[in-house]
Design a protein that fits this description.
The structure holds 2 protein chains of 2 kinds.
Chain A: E1 3-14, E2 17-28, E3 32-36, H1 43-51, E4 58-63, E5 66-67, E6 76-79, H2 91-103, H3 112-128, H4 144-156, E7 162-166, H5 174-190, E8 195-198, H6 202-208, E9 211-217, E10 230-237
Parallel strand pairs in A: 3-8, 3-9, 6-7, 7-8
Antiparallel strand pairs in A: 1-2, 1-4, 4-5, 9-10
Chain B: H1 11-39, H2 49-61, H3 71-103, H4 105-119, H5 123-134, H6 138-162, H7 166-174, H8 179-216, H9 222-229, H10 235-263
Helix pairs in contact in B: 2-10, 3-4, 3-6, 3-8, 3-9, 4-6, 5-6, 6-8, 8-9, 8-10, 9-10
The chains are: A alpha/beta, B mainly alpha.
């Protein structure tokens, strides 16, 4: 397996406050990396770095060997806990968004035969996440779980090199959560995705991940709580997961 | 006994409740007018309904031999044209500036102090400048409306666009959207229903500026007429004119609301499918 993402001595400081210190890690292609840690341990900062929303104060991040572009791009897909679908577009147009932007630089909207081809791709993607019968519905009318399915389909249509999940199932009911776990496992397997998932839920981290990384502070000065930052304190490679049992749904 | 804050009127009851104060006000007026007229038949301050109906007939249905036009319609046409042109210009400026200030930090840093500075100037104080610059014709009146409502509209729209969740903007970029595409496909569609809403809220101030400009320098228009007949204490013309302005204002407001509901169902969750 080749390395897809690597951190080399990455630090993040806000003034005197150190958030991340000396983060060194590499992620291999096809891994499902769960990132855990207490609140304020820099999990979100780590994700923002990969997204390009934030730049390291020191150190280098590489994606496929190249220094990471310092802004979000279509090589990195993302699903946030909330607000990651467009409320003004129906389900179909939400998934079409990426294809529209790619195919039509000026109008941002495909038309004619290219639109029909894109529609087929989009509708197939929606069917595979279980939203094949809700194409004309607006996100506000979908349940939380359905909105996250939509957000995942929307991200996957661009075939990102890495899929970033920021507490994607944190706001969902336990039953819905289990369905979503099955879905993301199946999609990860089918699309041979590389996934970085930040989560609070340790059980979820171990159930889904092929690797679990914990962020925490290794040094702590009670007189100056901001003097030291977090880093990857714990990095556990799990046994390879068997392919998911349910191929359908 | 339920708390009064939990008592919600049903649809029919709600309409009746809303009608009640209007009818009460009308009743009080009629009573006061009758009492005044019994004491002094020549009384002008509280004209009777009959006198007002008579004036409506003269103003709204009879051609004025001096101008060859029916005054009410001539005034309405002139005022609505000024109001409409002013608001269209204000809305267009707001859409462009609000979108750019809301989405692009560089434009925000450059323009928002200017907009904030213009917004604190009382527009009526600028009116002499406008009359001197643009003359006493239509331009000055339209520019007053534009100057009066645009800054507040711009700030409202810009803050709404800036409040679009960061997640959506980042998501759009991860889907390959350029700056232009984020503005066109994420910011613009979400700005439009708010633009209509801020336009509805600006109707009140726009009428104030229109009537002021017409009162000061004009020869036709609803505000002109009211201030003209004020000299003769013609309350029987002024009151129907004010009522007519109220009807026009409510009508425009409801029309804008209907457009927004129809065009942007997702922005009105209660009416969405």
């Amino acid at each position: 397996m080749t390395d897809i993402l690597s951190f080399h001595g990455v630090w993040v400081r806000y003034g005197a406050k150190v958030v991340l210190e000396k983060v060194n890690l590499t992620v291999t292609e096809g891994a499902f990396v769960s990132i855990v840690g207490p609140s304020g341990a820099g999990k979100s900062t780590f994700l923002r770095l990969v997204l390009g929303q934030e730049q390291p104060s020191q150190g280098v991040i590489r994606l496929d060997g190249q220094p990471l572009r310092p802004e979000p791009g279509k090589d990195r897909g993302v699903v946030f806990q909330r607000y990651s679908v467009f409320p003004h577009l129906n389900v179909r147009d939400n998934v079409m968004f990426g294809l529209d932007c790619q195919g039509s630089r000026v109008r941002g909207r495909l038309s004619g035969p290219s639109r029909r081809a894109a529609l087929e791709t989009a509708e197939a993607m929606l069917a595979s996440v279980g939203l094949g019968s809700a194409l004309d519905v607006f996100p506000a009318q979908l349940s939380g779980g359905m909105q996250q399915r939509l957000a995942i389909a929307q991200a996957l249509i661009m075939r990102p090199r890495i899929l970033l999940l920021d507490e994607p199932f944190g706001a969902l009911d336990p039953g819905v959560k289990a369905d979503m776990h099955a879905l993301i496992t199946r999609l990860w397997w089918e699309h041979k995705l590389t996934i970085l998932m930040v989560t609070h839920d340790i059980k979820e981290a171990f159930r889904l991940g092929t690797r679990v990384i914990a962020f925490d502070k290794i040094r702590h000065d009670p007189q100056a709580p901001n003097a030291y930052g977090s880093t990857a304190t714990f990095d556990l490679e799990l046994d390879p997961k068997p392919p998911p049992a349910d191929k359908g749904s | 006994m339920r708390r009064i804050l939990n008592v919600r009127p049903q649809a029919g009851v709600k309409a009746l409740l809303g009608l009640f104060p209007l009818l009460l006000l009308l009743l009080i007026y009629v009573a006061a007018s009758t009492i005044q007229h019994t004491a002094n038949p020549a009384e002008k301050i509280l004209p009777t309904l009959g006198a007002m109906v008579e004036q409506v007939r003269v103003m709204a249905f009879q051609v004025d031999p001096q101008t060859g036009a029916i005054p009410l319609w001539q005034d309405t046409g002139a005022s609505l044209t000024r109001l409409g042109v002013g608001l269209i210009i204000a809305t267009a400026i707001t859409l462009v500036l609000g979108l750019l200030i809301g989405t692009l930090p560089l434009v925000r840093a450059t323009l928002s102090p200017l907009v904030a500075a213009i917004a604190v100037i009382p527009p009526i104080a600028v009116l002499p400048i406008l009359f001197i610059t643009f003359g006493l014709g239509e331009t000055a009146k339209i520019v007053l409306i534009v100057v009066g409502v645009t800054p507040a509209m711009c700030r409202d729209l810009a803050s709404h666009v800036a409040a679009i969740p960061e997640e959506q903007i980042v998501k759009a970029q991860t889907l390959g959207a350029s700056t232009w595409q984020v503005i066109l496909r994420v910011a613009l569609p979400q700005a439009l229903p708010r633009l209509i809403q801020t336009l509805r809220l600006s109707l009140g101030p726009a009428w104030v500026f229109l009537i002021s400009a017409e009162a000061i320098a004009s020869d036709v228009g609803l505000g002109y007429r009211i201030f003209l007949v004020r000299r003769y204490l013609a309350m029987d013309i002024i009151v129907p004119y004010v009522a007519w302005i109220a009807i026009l204002a409510v009508g425009i407001d409801l029309a804008l609301l209907a457009i927004s509901r129809r065009a942007y169902p997702w922005a009105h969750p209660a009416t969405a499918r």
